[in-house]
Design goal:
This protein has about 450 residues and is α/β, with parallel strands linked by helices. It contains 13 helices and 16 strands. Helix content is about 30%, strand content about 15%. The structure holds flavin-adenine dinucleotide.
């Protein structure tokens, strides 16, 4: 295959597109960066700045042993523009890295505008460009681009909202109150179930009806689909609606009489394995818009979940993303059209940090390809690699976006005490990342092009 030296076309200059453009340009690859704002607005962005943060101003934990802290350090290892701009515009936020959003976006915009290898075009891209392309158009991808992607992948593989069920750490559950089974015994005993008696269900329902709910943004008003309603909305429709929906008790009999005198539960909550390591379970069908402290309070009323630790709480929000396990390979290329790469939230990662990280990874791979070097994927044991692992190895039939977390990483070898686990993950990641960087020096090392911004280049 002839390797093109034409500029890479990047669609969208949000967190992923901006990082990707900078990384490519710093390594000598010229880029045309297309951003439709301010000419065409999205429902959430307010400015024409590149890398605008649409909501919170936090890039999550900066603790080096937290998965988000590890991801930051790995990005810094490759001279990340997003992380260096965040550090320069940081505001006090405890152990999190939070920023002054205007200064942050100005730093990113300034670095890209000043870069000799980056051309910024303020236009909406309505069809997929030819040649090397990175689609980084984000959760609010314009309609025309969404249609172009749907035409390529099939409409059923492009989603427009997240209905995220809460996820709990499995070792925080009281197993004596729970039982493994599948409905009507079909398949393996794949679900961990909690049985509620009439009284427990009544109390749970009452708490749901009283809980505080997040208000909807104007552009989210048509968000709910009948097949995917939040549990509190189901509760409002009638006292038994949940028992005919996600809390249906049929086909599931606890192994011994629990709360119910005749062993037929009044309602059931099902939990399904969420990650490959089986350390996380999701509460099936429990998407919710309750405020987060309320979710914790209400969900801990479920038998067995009294002490539950939550990895993620329920959400429903607007989001455009593809079924990556079906369509992406570990280099973020579309299997049906390999010159098209995807980066950012549209791949099914969740969050500012994770979006930027995928933009960085795409740029490393593209640089290697332009240099004629056959790349190995970033190891799954690193935070950068674990994101790709989620996108390529998750079960495609219930794929949902994810933040970086240790549940996405391969298991640690041998038995590691709980309090040592985070340190072990970070130590293993550091060794494996250095090994990868060593084997791919050309992408990592300085390029013939002069450095525009003094970013760390290794
Ligand atoms: C309402 C909302 C709130 C969120 N809040 C948070 C939060 O608080 N914390 C968090 O970590 N994550 C949050 N997210 C999720 C996500 O992390 C961010 O949206 C993040 O900005 C995603 O990065 P990205 O680069 O993929 O997309 P974006 O940062 O959105 O960048 C995509 C860019 O592409 C442009 N674009 C779209 N279509 C086209 C086109 N056809 N041609 C040219 N340009 C185009 C857009 O204008 C935009 O600038 C939120 C998402 C939404 C929708």
């Amino acid at each position: 295959m002839t390797v093109s030296q034409k500029p890479v076309q990047i669609v969208g200059a949000g967190l992923a597109g901006a990082e990707c453009a900078f990384q490519l340009a710093e390594r000598g690859v010229s880029v045309v960066l297309h951003e439709m704002r301010p000419v065409k607005k999205t429902p959430a962005h307010k400015t024409g700045d590149l890398a605008e943060l649409v909501c919170s101003n936090s890039l999550r934990s900066d603790d080096p042993h937290h998965a988000a802290g590890l991801l930051k350090r790995e990005m810094e290892r490759f001279g990340s523009l997003i992380i260096s701009s965040a550090r320069r515009s940081a505001v006090p936020a405890g152990s999190a890295l939070a920023v002054d959003r205007e200064r942050f976006a100005a730093a990113v915009t300034g670095a890209l505008e000043a870069h000799p290898l980056v051309e910024i075009h303020r236009n909406e891209v309505r069809t997929l460009p030819e040649g090397d392309v990175v689609i980084a158009s984000g959760p609010l991808t314009s309609k025309a681009m969404s249609n172009a992607i749907a035409d390529l992948l099939g409409g059923e593989h492009l989603y427009f909202y997240d209905a995220i069920a809460p996820i709990v750490e499995s070792d925080s559950l009281n197993r004596s109150k729970l039982f493994w089974a599948s409905r009507y015994g079909k398949g393996g005993a794949d679900y961990l179930n909690s049985a509620l008696d009439r009284e427990q269900y009544g109390a749970f329902l009452a708490a749901l009806l009283e809980a505080e709910i997040l208000p909807l943004h104007e552009f989210e008003k048509n968000l709910f689909f009948e097949g995917c309603l939040p549990i509190e909305e189901l509760a409002r429709r009638g006292p038994d609606t949940l028992r005919f929906g996600p809390m249906k008790p049929v086909g599931l009999t606890p192994p011994s009489p629990t709360q119910s005198e005749d062993r037929v539960p009044y309602a059931i909550v099902q939990m399904r394995q969420e990650n490959l390591a089986k350390s996380h379970l999701n509460l099936v069908g429990f998407q919710s818009r309750m405020k987060w402290p309320e979710q914790k309070r209400v969900l801990r009323m479920i038998p067995g979940l009294e002490q539950a630790r939550f990895v993620r709480l329920g959400q429903i929000h607007r989001n455009t993303f593809i079924n990556s396990p079906v369509h992406l390979n570990a280099f973020y290329r579309l299997k049906v059209r390999p010159l098209v790469r995807l980066a950012g939230q549209i791949t099914g990662v969740e969050g500012y940090l994770e979006s930027a990280a995928t933009g960085l990874a795409v740029a490393l791979y593209l640089t290697l390809e332009r240099q004629g070097v056959e790349a190995a994927p970033l190891p799954f044991s690193t935070a950068l690699g674990a994101l790709a692992r989620h996108l390529t190895e998750s079960n495609s039939s219930h794929f949902q976006p994810a933040n970086i977390n240790y549940g996405l990483f391969p298991d640690l070898a041998g038995r590691v005490r709980k309090r040592d686990r985070r340190r072990s993950y970070t130590e293993r990641a550091a060794v494996d990342l250095e090994d990868w960087a060593h084997r791919h020096q050309t992408a990592v090392a300085a390029t013939p092009a002069p450095l525009a911004s003094g970013a760390a280049v290794l």
